[in-house]
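Observation: inputs received (chain + adenosine-5'-triphosphate).
Thought: call the complex predictor directly.
Action: predict_structure
Action Input:
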Amino acid sequence: MTMADAESVQAGGATPLLDVRNLVVRYGKRGPAAVDDVSFTIMRGETLGLVGESGSGKTTIGRAILGLQAVTSGEIWFEGKNITRASVAERRSLQGDMRAVFQDPYSSLNPRRPIGDALTEPLRVARVPRADRDRRAEDALAAVGLPPGSAGRYPRQFSGGQRQRIAIARALVTDPRLVVCDEAVSALDLSTQAQVLNLLAELRAGADLGYLFIAHDMAVVEFLAQRVVVLNRGRIVEQGTTAEVLQNPQYHYTQVLMAASPVPDPDEQARRRDVWQALKATAPAA
Ligand SMILES: Nc1ncnc2c1ncn2[C@@H]1O[C@H](COP(=O)(O)OP(=O)(O)OP(=O)(O)O)[C@@H](O)[C@H]1O
Ligand SMILES: [Mg+2]
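Observation:
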C-alpha cells in the first residue's frame, strides 16, 4: 500500500480530488529527474502546500498536473480518473475543473483586450451558453473585490495586486474543483500579499475548492495549507499536516526553509513577521 492509499483509507476511503502517484518527470531522455518518485493526494476542499527551494521541481509538478508537461512515469488521477496521458480533447474538458494562477498575470493577459475577455474565454471553452458568460465574468470580478465596470478595462489600468485578483477571478469563473497556485502571491508587496491570501481563503470556504499551493515561502504556505509537502531536488523530504511539519521539522532542510523567509534584511524580516501576525489575526478559519 502506498502512502497515498493509506491516507485515502484513513480519510474513510473517499476518492481523492487529486492523486499523484510515483510521479517522475525528466527534461530530455538522459537528463536527471526534475521530479523523482513524488506521491501525494489532495482531498476535496483541501489545500496542500508544496514548498522547496528554487529548482526543487515545484513548477514541474504543477505543470504535469495541468497537462502542460509530459510525464515520464507515474500516474496522475483527478476525481477518480487517470489523466496522466489524457488526450487534447480530454484535457479540454478538464479545463473548467482544474485551473491555474501563476506568479505573473500580466504576461498572460492580452494588453489589447479588455479583461472581461480573459474571463469569458474559459467559459466559452467550458461550453457555458454565450448569454450567461458576461454575467458570470462580472460576478467573478465582484467576488475578488474589483469595482463594477472592471470587465471593460484593460490590463494596464490595474495595479499588480488587482491583476492578481483578475487572475484569481479567471481561475474561479468556471467553478473549478482544483486550482494550482504557483507562486501566486510571491511578486506582491506584503500587505497586498496578505489581502490576496485572505481572499484565497475566503473563496475556498464553502466552495469545496482544493488548492495545490506552491510557494518557496513557508510562512505563506502555513497560512493556507492544511498539509505540506517539502521537496528537495525533486524528491519529497517531508510530508505531513502543516502543524506537524512546522512544529517538528524532521529535516534540517525544512528548518532552513522556515528560517529562510527569503529576506536578508533584518528590518524587513521583522516587518514580515508583523504582517504575518496581522494576517493570522484577521483570517477566516481555514
Ligand atoms: N523546460 C525545462 N527544460 C529543462 N530543464 C528544466 C525545464 N524547466 C525546469 N527545468 C529544470 O527542472 C528542475 C526543476 O525546475 P522547476 O521549475 O520545477 O523548479 P521550482 O521548484 O519551480 O523552482 P522555482 O522556485 O525557482 O520556481 C530544475 O533543475 C530546472 O532547471
Ligand atoms: Mg517554480
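Thought: report the result.
Final Answer: Residues 27, 34, 52, 54-60, 216 surround adenosine-5'-triphosphate (ligand 1) (CB under 6 Å). Residues 154 and 160 are 13 Å apart (CA to CA).
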